[in-house]
Write a structure and sequence with these properties.
single chain; 7-stranded mixed sheet; about 30% helix; alpha/beta
Length: about 210
């Protein structure tokens, strides 16, 4: 039976200097906790996506594809909601790696269709909310800024992802050494991999409306 909780921000060993666990360890842990879905959101890449689909299927999990886009002082977790959203995620990741003039806020604003955005980056959230609050969520990450993020979510009518300190959550970022992953041009537009669960789950599973 499902626990009704879904990890929407998860790093694996495919996130250099951020993720520690292997995909096998992550999927096994999620299954042990009674979950039936898991998102993989490695930093600035979809390097483990295909292997993740295979491992998740083996463990009886429904995989959700995404990534944490990080550039300079900005960051956001992007989850593919539709095939078009997956294509836009690929575009954003390629632009992040290849464009010297990459503008984080403008790029996400231009390619956010079909994506669910979780972020504690208030300057970015303010800009994106002016366009539309749809599929935009405030992430409550541990740290000194958590109260500011919570206040922002309440004042702007945006739901906030909850942080559970005893288990991986939509706001938990694993850090630690891992083998370096060489970037390759693999984010060209391709169809969403077969078997991927595009993120259409009610975010009430991991969000707290105010």
């Amino acid at each position: 039976m499902s626990s009704g909780f879904v990890h929407l921000h998860t790093h694996s060993s495919y996130s250099p200097m951020w993720g520690i666990p292997t995909l096998e360890a992550l999927c096994q842990a999620a299954r042990t906790q009674g979950q039936d879905r898991l998102a993989l959101t490695d930093t600035n890449g979809l390097y483990g996506a295909i292997r993740f689909l295979e491992v998740a299927k083996h463990e009886g999990l429904k995989p959700i594809l995404g990534a944490e886009l990080v550039h300079k002082a900005h960051r956001a977790v992007l989850l593919a909601k539709t095939p078009a959203g997956y294509a836009n995620l690929c575009r954003l990741l390629s632009a992040r790696h290849e464009e010297s003039t990459f503008d984080f806020i403008a790029a996400v604003a231009g390619y956010r269709a079909g994506l669910i955005i979780l972020s504690d980056d208030l300057s970015a959230l303010k800009a994106w909310r002016k366009d539309s609050p749809k599929d935009l969520y405030v992430e409550l990450s541990p740290g000194s800024d958590i109260q500011e993020a919570l206040t922002f979510s309440r004042r702007n009518g945006l739901s906030a992802g909850r942080y559970h300190p005893r288990r991986l959550s939509s706001s938990h970022r694993l850090r630690g050494p891992s083998p370096a992953t060489r970037h390759r041009r693999q984010h060209d537009i391709v169809p969403a991999p077969a078997g991927a669960l595009l993120c259409t789950i009610p975010l009430a599973h991991a969000a707290d409306s105010h």
